[in-house]
């Protein structure tokens, strides 16, 4: 049997819904401290990919600088965005502090890793290629 051609590859279907939801998220480190190393960013991306999978979402794009991260997430309508964000920030903070404790303590203190605020932008009105290009063009820190 030949593979079926799909005219809308980004569209997902559920039992009672057809959807194509994407969000651009930006998380900033507490006090905008330049706490990330390349190794930490690689691990952060892995952790955030796992969290997205747990929510039946997909991390489509990840990029970062030393003091913030950009994510492009494809998520189902049953996911409450604030809960996804809380999980992404909470799990990544906990794991990065556990695995890079001595480094993180030099830059961040008081049990905080991320700033309490975040940016969430709907990507419905912009072609995803534009958002991907923007995220890809963010500077990656050099160690």
Automatic annotation (TrEMBL):
Pfam families: Y1_Tnp
Matching InterPro entries: Transposase_17, Transposase_17_sf
Coiled-coil regions listed: none
Domain Transposase IS200-like: 18-138
Lineage top rank: taxon: Bacteria
PANTHER family in the cross-refs: TRANSPOSASE FOR INSERTION SEQUENCE ELEMENT IS200
Protein name (record): IS200/IS605 family transposase
Protein source organism: Streptomyces mirabilis
């Amino acid at each position: 049997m030949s593979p079926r051609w799909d005219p809308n590859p980004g569209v997902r279907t559920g039992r009672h819904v057809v959807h194509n939801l994407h969000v651009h998220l930006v998380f900033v480190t507490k006090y905008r401290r330049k706490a990330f190393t390349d190794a930490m960013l690689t691990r952060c991306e892995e952790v955030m990919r796992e969290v997205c999978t747990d929510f039946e979402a997909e991390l489509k794009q990840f990029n970062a600088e030393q003091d913030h991260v950009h994510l492009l997430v494809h998520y189902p309508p049953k996911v409450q965005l604030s809960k996804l964000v809380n999980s992404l920030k909470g799990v990544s903070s906990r794991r990065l502090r556990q695995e890079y404790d001595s480094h993180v303590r030099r830059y961040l203190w008081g049990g905080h890793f991320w700033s309490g605020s975040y940016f969430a932008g709907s990507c419905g009105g912009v072609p995803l290629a534009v958002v991907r290009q923007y995220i890809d063009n963010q500077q990656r820190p050099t160690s």
